[in-house]
Amino acid sequence: xxxxxxxxxxxxxxxxxxxxxxxxxxxxxxxxxxxxxxxxxxxxxxxxxxxxxxxxxxxxxxxxxxxxxxxxxxxxxxxxxxxxxxxxxxxxxxxxxxxxxxxxxxxxxxxxxxxxxxxxxxxxxxxxxxxxxxxxxxxxxxxxxxxxxxxxxxxxxxxxxxxxxxxxxxxxxxxxxxxxxxxxxxxxxxxxxxxxxxxxxxxxxxxxxxxxxxxxxxxxxxxxxxxxxxxxxxxxxxxxxxxxxxxxxxxxxxxxxxxxxxxxxxxxxxxxxxxxxxxxxxxxxxxxxxxxxxxxxxxxxxxxxxxxxxxxxxxxxxxxxxxxxxxxxxxxxxxxxxxxxxxxxxxxxxxxxxxxxxxxxxxxxxxxxx
Length: 370
What we know:
9-stranded mixed beta sheet, elongated
């Protein structure tokens, strides 16, 4: 845990709590680290599901990053509004979201949109809708190389599906999409080996596709833990996401990744119900609650034990409760930053220890205009 007072705010009395604070200078440093690991912007396709903010997209665009990945129609629209040239919507679209995707394409012709599929049914539905609009749809074949969440196994069935896509006049095949979020080995040597072994199935499929006389234009692979491994492969696009804000869980799990914590929750003591106990205004409406306690790491108050959380309250025990008064400000790093950001419609940007700006979390909801 960092010991410097980079997170302190001199005008904290003007900030309501709980609030999510972000630190642009540290985000900028994380962008530079991400670019260094990826070897530049050419094969970098960062995911925006963590931050969902136009301000951070703009920061990346200024560094020449023009390809992005996202998880919702709203995130895709935000990217287009921000000036992104190439947007991969990395979720298989079903129901009304298919039509929303084509409406998105029509509304923002300056942006190249693509999405993923892992079965013939959805591929044909997307192609049929493209045909009605007298256009083509750009699709990636989503592969399951071990996570078992989405994707088709990279075997003969995947080869046949790729052929079907390539033969359909209303589908433009972008390539292969591989998300290996199951690879979370803390030891970097082990992570490299596990990642390389899992990726062999992708490499083998690519060879089979090429033997069949087809082209694999692109491969986009990995999330934050594995993108340094994939970045060493020739021609592979990599998709880190959590790296720009960072959180305590990833910081603890992956010591080889030197990203800086750039998002902090500011909370206050709101009660001292009994000796040794403090209650903070940090309920599970304000921080990702899907994991067991603890859900935040307090930066200075290291002896806190988080014993209970409800919608508006977090109760901690401490041997030093006498050192705290109701109203005291505390700072904590979320264990999981992605769903934490989604709980806030705006965040406070801190520069030089002072409130600088208020940033909107524009893609927090499922819809912006489309």
